[in-house]
Amino acid sequence: MVSPALAQxxxxxxxxxxxxxxxxxxxxxTPNYFRSLARGIISQxxxxxxxxxxxxxxxxxxxxxxxxxxxxxxxxxxxxxxxLGRTHNELRTAGLSERKAQYMHSLATEFIEDKSLTELHTLxxxxxxxxxxxxxxxxxxxxxxxxxxxxxxxxxxxxxxxxIQRGMAVWDGRNVNKLxxxxxxxxxxxxxxxxKYMSEEDMVRLSxxxxxxxxxxxxxxWKASDTQVASMKEREEGKVKEAGPKGKGKKKELEExxxxx
Length: 261
What we know:
Blueprint: H1 4-13, H2 18-21, H3 33-43, H4 48-60, H5 80-84, H6 88-92, H7 98-113, H8 125-132, H9 140-149, H10 162-171, H11 176-181, E1 190-191, E2 194-195, H12 200-207, H13 214-225, H14 250-254
Antiparallel strand pairs: 1-2
Helix pairs in contact: 3-7, 3-9, 8-9, 10-13
């Protein structure tokens, strides 16, 4: 109803799986919030492949392999106490920077001292962001990603995520390849010396019609940001759509948000 052209785009490009494959379902087990936030810290400012490698090495620091299970299972996580038991240098052997090692210790300390962090699902979106951004190393973008992927909230919209910015630029009919080459001219802006495909004001305005389902809108925009889209021929006004650039996957774009560069 908001954008018939976008609906056609989703249908023609078979985006349907991203609308069901990335959000928690009501009967899913409650995720380990400490693990989710630690993974978010690991992912900041690195590629998807690098984040996966660091996460694997980080988990291996605390896992005792067996012949039947030589690798940590997907749900494995060290406790906050175990993380605090490792020095910064030990954490850095997994590929963490000194700053991220500090962030890990800060996160672990907060979970030990503030038991309410295990009850984040009981808070509003705004209260979750306010609470998490008080933790050293977690900013608004990381808190928003936590709301989407750990808590499964349906109406989260992240203006600080570069992937969403780029996807929206594609959807809005902007030539993202040309914008990148010209350093942000012709519609993109430099805000506080940080390059953007479009202004936050434009992003908010264009997303308003998708309330209260903006999380789904973000998922589609992430997909649009890294997929060559040929099926969405026209906008509602009849302008030809520009195809988005091939990228390195949604995960990469999640890392290029507020804390991810």
